[in-house]
Automatic annotation (TrEMBL):
<comment type="similarity">
    <text>Belongs to the enoyl-CoA hydratase/isomerase family.</text>
</comment>
<dbReference type="Pfam" id="PF00378">
    <property type="entry name" value="ECH_1"/>
</dbReference>
<dbReference type="InterPro" id="IPR014748">
    <property type="entry name" value="Enoyl-CoA_hydra_C"/>
</dbReference>
<keyword id="KW-0413">Isomerase</keyword>
<dbReference type="InterPro" id="IPR051683">
    <property type="entry name" value="Enoyl-CoA_Hydratase/Isomerase"/>
</dbReference>
<protein>
    <submittedName>
        <fullName>Enoyl-CoA hydratase/isomerase</fullName>
    </submittedName>
</protein>
<dbReference type="InterPro" id="IPR001753">
    <property type="entry name" value="Enoyl-CoA_hydra/iso"/>
</dbReference>
<dbReference type="GO" id="GO:0016853">
    <property type="term" value="F:isomerase activity"/>
</dbReference>
<dbReference type="InterPro" id="IPR029045">
    <property type="entry name" value="ClpP/crotonase-like_dom_sf"/>
</dbReference>
Length: 244
């Protein structure tokens, strides 16, 4: 059973995260499928741009705690989104948590409806947003990122747009994206590739410099006793032992 559906219309390849029963959590299988689909898009001259969207009420709940991807695989996926020679547009109509926010930050353009909510929940299960900070830090407001990463608070789509996590937020996400997709279809493919390369250079510098230590940090935290307690508490729907 596939976790990523693929459709195409007028040069736009739509990749749909399709594991709603698991809230489109980033399992090893889903990350592998999405990586493969994006790789195909990057080498297909008939693809002008990619739309990344979802089924169900959640864009992505973050890492699948029962079948998490290896940190190296998640880094590779995020880097692929950033350096893909085709623009990647995120279309969000549901909730986004933890690692799912890394997917948004790695996309070139991201739009969400006002029904979407966002939260960096890592600290609440005893880990840190280590790997996803690679695309996040160069693209989002540092003061806001400090608040939301340190507290795990939920915020809405308007705030996500204000801090740079989203390009736009509104009642009708498809209306928001209609001029975006029209513009991409009207743009020369080679020009899109080179323009994206210019725009993502600083993000890729962050990957080159910090990916290895952040991958090691993620692996260390996820294997810690504190994280085991946090993940167990989450799955058991109770507060972890450190809550005051």
């Amino acid at each position: 059973m596939t976790a990523v559906r693929r459709t195409r219309a007028r040069g736009i390849e739509t990749l749909t995260l399709d594991s709603p029963q698991h809230r489109n959590a980033l399992s090893a299988a889903l990350v592998g499928e999405l990586t493969g689909a994006l790789t195909d898009c990057g080498t297909d001259d008939a693809v002008r741009a990619v739309v990344l969207t979802h089924t169900g009420t959640t864009f992505s709940a973050g890492a699948d705690l029962r079948d998490p991807p290896h940190p190296d695989a998640l880094v590779a996926l995020l880097r692929l989104l950033v350096e893909l020679p085709r623009p990647v547009v995120a279309r969000v109509t549901g909730h986004v948590r933890a690692g799912g926010l890394g997917l948004l930050a790695a996309c070139d353009i991201a739009a969400a409806s006002h029904t979407a909510t966002f939260a960096f929940t890592e600290v609440r299960i005893g880990v840190a947003p280590a790997v996803i900070s690679l695309p996040l830090l160069p693209r989002t407001d540092p003061r806001a990122l400090a608040r939301y990463c340190l507290t795990g608070e939920r915020f809405d789509a308007a705030e996500a747009a204000r801090i740079g996590l989203l390009t736009a937020a509104g009642d009708d996400v498809d209306a928001l994206l209609e001029p975006v997709l029209d513009g991409l279809r009207r743009s020369a493919p080679e020009a899109l590739t080179e323009t994206k390369r210019l725009l993502t250079a600083r993000v890729l510098e962050t990957f080159d410099r910090d990916a290895a230590p952040l991958t090691a940090l993620s692996a260390r935290l996820f294997s810690s006793p504190r994280a085991r307690e946090g993940m167990t508490a989450f799955l058991e729907r109770r507060d972890p032992e450190w809550v005051l």
